[in-house]
Amino acid sequence: MQKPKSVRMIQILLYTNMAMLLLAYVSAISTMKAGDVTGRSIGVIAVNLFLPIASLYLAQRSINRKQFVPSLLFSMLLIFFTLTNMIQMVVGLIILLMFFVLSTRAYFKGEIRAEKAEQRIETGESGDEGESEGESAEEQVKALPSSDQTAPVSRPRHDPIVEIREAGEEEAGTIHALMMGAFEEYRAAVPPSSALSETVESIREAIRNGSESAAILYEDDKAAAMVRFRMEEDSIYFFRLSVLPARRRRGYAKKLIQWIEQRGVGQGKLYSRCKVRQSVQNNMVLYQDRGYEIIDQELVVRPEGSVKALKMEKKLGPV
User: What gap in Å lies between CA 183 and CA 216, rounded to an integer?
Assistant: First the structure.
């Protein structure tokens, strides 16, 4: 899993504190007279260096293993052993503060297996939390068999043919049905996802007027997942990522994200962006695993309640 900037900063600052301590000892030794440099003095220095070096090693190992409490404790030990001047004190304070920023906490909560996290993101709770038209549509029932929306998660009995195609306005009903099938479990959330109040016609009109586009993933020529997106000034922004419950745990969310990123690169965009609910930590961790970082947060106020949303971004490169 790719570490967020905050975690990488913690590791760099730990090494920085250790380096400053070593430089202090080197400076002290260089100023000693030849007669003062004895085996005993060297032994004392070695013993004094052992504890901070051991603390640094254990802190870095705990961070890599995503163990929050040991990482914090060993970092505090290293800070204690390296407090020789004001600069190191400031660096130590920054390290401690970085442990409690949102992206660091999300990283350490990533102990949950990636497979479990991907199952959560495929429910479609990654999306645009803006307002939508509040009208229920019945076309979703015609668009897909009901078994596709209610069947339990299962592995295909063969290697299916999977392809992703950009959707046209005539496929608005299929897009809506896939979204409803994925977001249904969030109807009881507080507030419910705004996806549940969208209509086939609103989706069709958005595709028709070019304000958004969509892509559908087909498994053996049957619609299984979809994502909606739009081009912005320097980025491709995607939302409403949805995978039917019966088609989860097959990596389809990852395939759609990769497709979005490739599309962004093809259009000369520098970034891929999305939003997630702050309360859905697993989604955040999974996106970070794909190289996305938190760049901002906002409070979306709706009549049904407020939603804390995180904006995430990935810098795109050659695909």
Answer: 16
What pLDDT digit, counting tens, does each position of 139-165 carry? 333 335 444 444 555 566 678 899 999
CA nearest 191: which of 43, 299, 69, 111? 299
From CA 142, how far away is CA 180, in angstroms rounded? 13
Sign of the dihedral through C-alpha 286, 289, 290, 293: positive
CB hemisphere CA count around 150 (13 angstroms): 4
**Axis crossing angle, helix 68-81 with helix 39-64, rounded to the nearest 10:** 150
Q: In the chain, where does DSSP find H-type helix?
A: 5-30, 39-64, 68-81, 86-98, 102-108, 114-121, 139-143, 146-150, 172-183, 200-208, 252-266, 281-289
Q: Is the pTM of this model over 0.90?
A: no
169 neighbors 204 (Cβ within 8 angstroms): yes
For residues 78 and 60, the answer to whether their CB atoms sit within 8 Å is no
C-alpha dihedral, 159 to 168 to 200 to 195, nearest 10°:
60
Name residues whose C-beta falls within 8 Å of residue 68's C-beta, 6 or more positions apart in sequence.
Answer: 99, 105, 108
Cα–Cα separations (whole angstroms), residue 32 to 10, 26, 35, 38, 187 = 34, 10, 8, 10, 73
Q: For residue 160, is the peptide bond before it cis, meaning its omega torsion is within 30 degrees of 0?
A: no
